[in-house]
Amino acid sequence: MTSTPSLSPRLLKDPVHLLALGFGSGLAPVAPGTAGTLLAVLPAWLIAAWPWPMRLGLVAVLFALGVWICGESARRLGVHDHPAIVWDEIVGYLAVCLAAPSSPAWLAAAFVLFRFFDIVKPWPIRDVDHSLGGGIGIMLDDLIAAAFGAACLLLYQYFFP
Q1: Domain hosting residue 68, numbered range
Q2: pLDDT tens track for 54-76
Q3: Is residue 105 a contact partner of residue 141, using CB atoms and an 8 Å limit?
């Protein structure tokens, strides 16, 4: 296993890295992906009352921006999908929350499910993570992890209304 270089907080002066590194949450020394996802909890809760099409539109815009932001940050760092790049986790969590009712328990369930699928990377998440380069590869595996988490939330809501 190769180690990835640690990053300087000075990188946050660059707007691309500021966003890609989740406003510094990706610089957490342990579990930066989880730290980035935690950063997304408050915005997810704040937009939970928005109409679903508005939340979906926001996620779509953030995903599209993320393809460029994450790709450019990775290019500048010289490491594809450096663990400190957490914009994809932020957007992925917001995406799974599209299937969650707006209560703290559901947002917590969305958090756990998203992190589980993002860490374990069952098929096809792992294949996408390893086969696609650039920003689309960085973003897409998290979107698929979000889809898996959302499917679990929706199945639970269907069978236990």
Answers
A1: 32-159
A2: 999 999 999 999 999 999 999 99
A3: no
